[in-house]
Amino acid sequence: MMLKTLGLVVALLGASAVPALAQSACQEPIAPAAIDGAVATTAQMGNAHDDVMTFIKQSDDYQSCLLKEFNDLQTDAVKNKKPLDPAIQTAVSAKVDANQHLKEKVGGEYNASVIAYKAKHPNG
After folding, report:
1. pLDDT tens-place string over residues 44-96
2. Which of 5, 15, 65, 76 could form a disulfide with 26 if both were Cys (CB 3.0 to 4.6 A apart)?
3. Single pTM value for the model
4. Helices 42-79 and 86-120 meet at what angle, rounded to 10?
């Protein structure tokens, strides 16, 4: 019983030591599924376009939010004369980079579907 209690205390202390950025209010967007332009209808292509544009906008907002939170943490650290954990900047950069790569992947997939759609529908 004592080990269970000790384990619970250690787990709670570990959870409270999570960096501030892990409690971010920034919402990471979910990438839309790729569409096969060779078999898609005009309506499906239009919906895919809208989904991609929404994802790109949400990704831009997400990245801006992450950077704002980081800048706020930096400002607070300076104000309180305390160093900011360098791991926070590394984590923010990793999240921004990962989202940027996902944006590029989604854009590339959509462009490929447009090319395939136009190949199947050369007159429209």
Report:
1. 999 999 999 999 999 999 999 999 999 999 999 999 999 999 999 999 999 99
2. 65
3. 0.78
4. 170
**DSSP symbol at 17:** T
- Size of the chain in residues: 124
CB contact set of 49 (below 8 Å; sequence gap of 6+): 110
24 three-state secondary structure: coil
- 86/81 Cα distance (integer angstroms): 15
Report the alpha-carbon distance of residue 8 to residue 82 in Å, rounded. 30
* Residues 112, 83: Cα–Cα separation, whole Å: 46
Closest CA to 65 of 18, 106, 24, 23: 24
Whether the Cβ atoms of residue 87 and residue 19 lie closer than 8 Å to each other:
yes
